[in-house]
Design a protein that fits this description.
By secondary structure, this protein is of the alpha+beta class. The protein has one domain (5-76). It contains two helices and six strands; from the N terminus they run E-E-E-E-H-E-H-E. Strand 2 (17-25) and strand 3 (31-35) form a beta hairpin.
């Protein structure tokens, strides 16, 4: 069975949506992240949450579809 990855979707002021993976440790204090532009990377979870708003389902659905198409099995959560 494929592992399920917890994801937190956030939206920036410019409307771009990012996915934070709080259980994927990248480097000290950073978690995994994903966005349409730039794709995989590391993010400071607290900083991103402080600079963004929760994404609505309508906002994050395209990113969610992209992530599932590349193999992620996701469970949306509101916070880590």
């Amino acid at each position: 069975m494929e592992p399920i990855t917890r994801v937190v979707y956030r939206t920036w002021n410019n409307g771009e949506v990012c996915a934070l993976f709080p259980d994927i440790d990248e480097t000290r204090g950073y978690c995994g992240s994903y966005a349409h532009v730039g794709q995989h990377g590391s993010a400071d979870y607290s900083h991103v949450v402080g600079m963004t708003k929760p994404a609505t389902k309508e906002q994050y659905q395209p990113l969610h579809n992209e992530l599932t198409s590349i193999g992620y099995k996701l469970k949306e959560v509101k916070r880590r």
